Amino acid sequence: MNILVTGANGFIGRALCRVLTVQGHVVRSAVRSVEKFEQLPDGGEKVSVGDIGSNTEWSSALEGIDAVVHLAARVHIFKELTADSLEAFRKVNVLATERLALAATKAGVKRFIFISSVKVNGEGSSQPYTESDCPNPQDAYGISKREAEDVLRIIAAETGMEVVILRLPLVYGPGVGANFKNLTKLVALGVPLPFKNIDNQRSFIYLGNLIDAIAVCVEHPKATGETFLISDGEDVSTPDLMKIIANALGKKLRLFSLPYGILRILCKIAGKSEQLEKLTGTLLVDSSKIRDLLDWKPPFSLEEGIKETVKKGISV
């Protein structure tokens, strides 16, 4: 197939373009500027589209394309949900997505894969999220992703373009940044850490598993019109995750117990309350729908994914 990938120069996009190319697809990589384009597999096409927004011109990028994988998005999370922050997210995540989808229908694109977020469901629950849950986004990013999903469903209903939506938990893999990278660096220090009594559960998705799922959704006939929550299928507590990371690093993990109230106070003083919440909260994803409907199985285990992440992707 001829596939357009937006956000092709990002963490997920680079890996996706490589795999799709190896699988024999013709990949057209859309980025802001070809001059700043990082190295990708030979044989594909590269196209500059400038800043992605409600006025982006997509016609040349979409010519001859069978399927679009829309990765490009505004992902920086504002601490406060304000009218200004929501408007900033809507410009890229909603209006730009609508612009691309409408242009794709005019170009005769058959399938549109939209990469969304579990934040559409919410910020965490004691029970695993499912696709049938009522959406409950709590921040500007989650709200904008939900609105983009709604827009795409309307376009699909009106035009017949096949829309597939994937909602992701935290993605890790070689080259990952932000919280997962910081956690790995923390474990690598080898110092005692106050997380022994944290009793939470979290779902993750390894980059290799995500790419495999996207590749399946590009072609599988039963994916049409569906929304999928995906994960590695191995939920893990923060202490257990640290143990797996420590083993991959060849480090000895030393954990001790500290009352959560004291831990919260210390993190608040240090300006790390948000990071603590993400580290210690519970967020579970039920990925049985994509497994059952598309017969999809993650090719990598959680332990394998973390080993590859530590070996190839994080300098500690």
What does this structure look like?
By secondary structure, the chain is an alpha/beta fold. It has helices at residues 11-22, 59-62, 83-106, 140-159, 178-188, 207-219, 238-249, 260-269, 273-280, 288-294, 302-313, and strands at 2-6, 26-31, 45-48, 67-70, 111-117, 162-168, 170-172, 204-206, 227-229. It folds into 2 domains: 2-168, 3-Layer(aba) Sandwich (Rossmann fold); 178-200 and 236-280, no CATH class. The protein has a 7-stranded parallel beta sheet, sandwiched between helices. The protein has a two-stranded parallel ribbon with strand order 7-8. Strand 5, helix 4 (140-159) and strand 6 form a beta-alpha-beta unit. The model has no long low-confidence stretch (mean pLDDT 89).
List the helices and strands and how they pair.
Blueprint: E1 2-6, H1 11-22, E2 26-31, E3 45-48, H2 59-62, E4 67-70, H3 83-106, E5 111-117, H4 140-159, E6 162-168, E7 170-172, H5 178-188, E8 204-206, H6 207-219, E9 227-229, H7 238-249, H8 260-269, H9 273-280, H10 288-294, H11 302-313
Parallel strand pairs: 1-2, 1-4, 2-3, 4-5, 5-6, 6-9, 7-8
Helix pairs in contact: 1-6, 3-4, 5-7, 7-11
